[in-house]
Amino acid sequence: MPLSSEPLIQLSTVPSINKRAIIIGGSLAGLFSGMLLRTIGWQVDIYERSTHQLDSRGGGVVLQAEVIAAFKQLAIDTENLGVVATERYYLYKDGGIEKVAMRQTLSSWNILYRSMHRNFPNQHYHQGKTLAQVLPEGSKVTAVFTDGTHETADLLIGADGPNSTVRQQLLPTTIPQYAGYVAYRGLVDEANLQPAAAKIFTERFVFYDLPNSHILAYVIPGENESLVAGKRRFNWVWYVNYDELTELPALLTDKNGQLHTHSIPPAMMAPAVERTMRDYANLVLVDPFKTLIAATKEPFVQSILDLTVPRMAFDNIALIGDAAFIPRPHTAASTAKAAANALALVAALDNGADDINKALQAWQVDQLAAGNHLCKHGRRLGG
Ligand SMILES: Cc1cc2nc3c(=O)[nH]c(=O)nc-3n(C[C@H](O)[C@H](O)[C@H](O)COP(=O)(O)OP(=O)(O)OC[C@H]3O[C@@H](n4cnc5c(N)ncnc54)[C@H](O)[C@@H]3O)c2cc1C
After folding, report:
1. 278/378: higher pLDDT
2. What average pLDDT score do residues 353-374 get?
3. Is 322 near ligand 1, meaning CB less than 6 Å away?
4. Does 130 sit in the ligand 1 pocket, CB within 6 Å?
5. Distance 160 CA to ligand 1 centre (A)
6. Nearest CA to 288 among 236, 230, 223?
7. CATH number, domain 11-61+119-176+307-382
8. 28 CB under 6 A from ligand 1?
9. Which atom of ligand 1 is nearest to the CA of 28?
10. Ligand 1 mean position, distance from CA 204 (Å)
């Protein structure tokens, strides 16, 4: 288990400042901000629409400095969060390999989520609660849920992701745009990959570039957070262009005929779409990646989105994480950005809790600049 025996910050010793925050969305941005706010004495309740514990089925996340900084502030062990890769391999069609030294830690969404979720008090993490509306009321803000209940607090944090209900209400014309391509993704247990291919992918970041497309793979922790060789998983991501009007709808229609907004989860891809993807992989990829995709039992797909917002601070309301900015995944920065938003928000409130809106205004200056910069960088990388 990735937790150290070191206890978490003794929250009972943090003086209460009698301020309450409501957080909408109990994924990474919600947990980073909720846990960090508790360290400065705020009462926090997280409201998550999912009725069960979230699970990404183990997708990979490149571990960045901001996540480590947030975990250190929360006294969560950072030593066992991922698999260390020390080099990159760029594969070529003729079988050649270019090797570049680069050290990175490759984690999984599940480890980061579970590391925080198990340390957040259960009675303040409310599942099956879907926000319907936010109502700013003087120096307070009220969240109205679809079940008819409501909660009032000093601050509401919209950490409700790409289709944020909070953002839809506050910035109705700001919506994510399809970037022109999708990411096919998949996971393969180490034990299920042929040894020759496994040798190429083990403990390195491996890329193959092809016209208007590229595919990458790396090892991440196993299903049960195992970092032990042989019990981990290969994680791959393949970017392929599709036309938004003529091709994308078929890709985002699952095996039951249901059209999804942005992604199809594992085991739900339509058989014809999956077959076409596998045939195309066999046609254009190099052997190690062909083998990796052939060994993938349940590939999944998500469309790549661009989103920037003109503001993140509103009356007693903050927008954070993917609710505010969605950088392209080539930046490997969405999770780090969620951590950075939360770290800065909590520092601003710690310095100026007497005037929450002044603190929010000060906070958003750097966060807007960083979000815009990251999204621009991602568009350059994505081409
Ligand atoms: C289940 C899951 C698995 C993921 N797996 C990966 C992965 O493997 N690799 C990766 O790089 N990224 C993954 N992501 C995305 C990653 O979490 C984000 O890109 C990034 O970390 C920022 O997270 P976020 O909390 O801002 O947004 P998100 O992670 O999208 O979380 C938003 C949360 O808000 C909840 N929500 C939305 N609307 C409402 C509402 N009206 N009321 C209440 N709750 C609401 C959603 O259910 C969701 O839990 C995953 C996200 C989720 C939700």
Report:
1. 278
2. 94
3. yes
4. yes
5. 7
6. 236
7. 3.50.50.60
8. yes
9. 25
10. 27
Tokens describing residue 365: 């200056």
Q: How far is the CA of 161 from the centre of ligand 1 (A)?
A: 5
Residue 55: per-residue pLDDT:
74
Q: What pLDDT, on a 0 to 100 scale, did the predictor assign at position 332?
A: 87
Among protein residues, the one whose CA lies closest to atom 26 of ligand 1: 321
Mean pLDDT for 42-66 is 89
From the CB of 61, is ligand 1 less than 6 Å away?
yes
List Cβ<8 Å contacts ≥24 apart for 267-271. 267/298, 268/300, 269/298, 269/299, 269/300, 269/301
- Cα torsion at 186, 290, 328, 190 (round to 10°)? 40
Per-residue pLDDT tens digits for 208-262: 999 989 999 999 999 888 999 999 999 999 999 999 999 999 999 999 999 999 9
Structural class in CATH, domain 83-108+177-305: alpha beta
Contact 109, 63 (CB under 8 A): no
Check if 165 has its Cβ closer than 6 Å to any atom of ligand 1: yes
Which pTM was predicted? 0.93
Confidence (pLDDT) at 225: 87
Residue type, 342: A
Angle at 374 between CA 371 and CA 375, to 5 degrees: 85
Q: Where are the domains of the chain?
A: 11-61+119-176+307-382, 83-108+177-305
The set of long-range contacts for 12-15, using a CB threshold of 8 Å and a minimum separation of 24, is 14/38, 14/39, 14/40, 14/41, 15/41
**Per-residue H/E/C for 185-204:** EEEEEHHHCCHHHHHHHCCC
pLDDT category of residue 354 using cuts at 50, 70 and 90: confident
Residue bearing the CA closest to ligand 1, atom 41: 131
Give the SS3 label for residue 93. Answer: coil
Rounded CA separation 173/168 (Å): 8
Length of the chain in terms of residues written: 383
Cα(325) to centroid of ligand 1, in Å?
Answer: 13
Spacing, Cα 35 to ligand 1 middle (Å): 16
Query: How far is Cα 268 from Cα 272, in angstroms, rounded to an integer?
Result: 12
